[in-house]
């Protein structure tokens, strides 16, 4: 039966090291996305919305920015 389907290929040492390397790099990347990029994107979205925490955000476009610039 093995001859029909072939042997299961085992990973070489360098392939296993590469997988571990990607796993170690993935954790800081995920942390950056969750704790830095996520809030940055949310704050950009909220700068274009009017939100008083009790109701859903209302899209106002550049009104907030124009108020800020004309102060």
What does this structure look like?
- The chain has helices spanning 2-5, 13-47, 63-69; strands at 49-50, 58-59.
- It has 71 residues and is mainly α.
- The longest helix has 35 residues, at 13-47.
- The mean pLDDT is 91.
What is the overall silhouette?
elongated
Radius of gyration: 25 Å
Distance between the termini: 79 Å
Which whole number gives the mean pLDDT? Answer: 91
What's the number of helices?
A: 3
Whole-number count of domains: 1
Strand content: 5-15%
Major β-sheet strand ordering: 1-2
Task: Name the poorly predicted regions.
Answer: none
- The number of strands is 2
Helicity, as a percent range: 55-70%
Features:
single chain; 71 residues; mainly alpha; two-stranded antiparallel sheet; 3 helices; 2 strands; elongated
